[in-house]
Write a structure and sequence with these properties.
Strand 4 and strand 5 form a beta hairpin. The protein has a 6-stranded antiparallel beta sheet with strand order 1-2-3-4-5-6, covered by helices on one side. The chain is an alpha+beta fold. It is built from 9 helices and 6 strands, in the order E-H-E-E-H-E-E-H-E-H-H-H-H-H-H.
């Protein structure tokens, strides 16, 4: 049984105690995975609004009401069956404590953990973002430095997901920051961003979803589109730092 998360390395032979420590101490960051095999796993992610979401966005209000009601940020819990090629999500948001319970039950049982929640099958066919470009294609795309980036390089708000990933891959965050770890740290910070930091976030999202082998969900797609619009604002304003 393998456990991994945003801020922890992959750990084989995950135990109850390890999972409890990771969740109780919030040491795993904003997402975590627990595998029985490469084809069957559960994953959870925190629905925290980013600095690319305006404060009057309905999502901000929804998350605030959930926190006020439960004392926890809302979490999304998913189950991926790679053999059947199906993905499922718990219908409602969960608290961090409920996610921890689901991870522990998944660790201890063969299927009983599914019975505590209402699951819906996810339809990824209509997702506007395609699977991120494979690493071979990523290596072939021409990098565009900040001072050469123009508005016509940027996809329109309703452009196909392929165009968003193409923009993402015109900046190599791993190469720029010198390591995966540094790129990840920059990408996961929530603060007023420079153009370089925004491009790092977009690049990292593309790489992250490529690593997962999944499509961005309905919560992440607006964030990714928001990154593009923030980048557009910087380019139009001539802020190329």
């Amino acid at each position: 049984m393998r456990f991994s998360s945003q801020k922890m390395p992959d750990i084989d032979n995950a135990s109850d105690a390890l999972i409890e420590r990771a969740f109780d101490g919030k040491a795993m960051g904003n997402f975590a995975h627990l595998w029985k095999s490469d084809d069957v796993f559960i994953q959870a992610s925190c629905r925290a609004p980013s600095n690319c979401v305006p404060p009057d966005d309905p999502l901000v209000k929804e998350i605030g009401e959930f926190i006020q009601r439960t004392g926890s940020e809302p979490w999304t819990l998913e189950h991926v069956d790679g053999v059947a090629r199906k993905e499922y999500r718990v219908e409602d948001d969960l608290t961090l404590e409920q996610v921890k319970t689901a991870f522990l039950e998944y660790l201890r049982s063969d299927g009983e953990w599914r019975q505590d929640h209402a699951w819906v099958e996810m339809d990824t066919r209509n997702n506007p973002f395609p699977n991120p470009m494979p690493d071979t294609a990523f290596e072939l795309i021409e990098a565009i430095p900040n001072d050469a980036l123009r508005n016509d390089h940027l996809p329109s708000p309703d452009a196909a997901g392929t165009e968003v990933w193409r923009l993402a891959n015109t900046f190599n965050g791993f190469k720029h920051w010198g390591s995966f770890e540094q790129c990840e740290e920059i990408a996961n910070q929530i603060r007023d961003s420079t153009l370089t930091e925004l491009r790092t976030c977009l690049f990292y999202e593309c790489r992250r979803w490529h690593y997962y082998g999944e499509l961005p969900d309905k919560h992440e797609s607006p964030y990714i589109r928001g990154l593009v619009e923030k980048i557009r604002e910087m380019v139009v304003a001539g802020r190329v730092e």
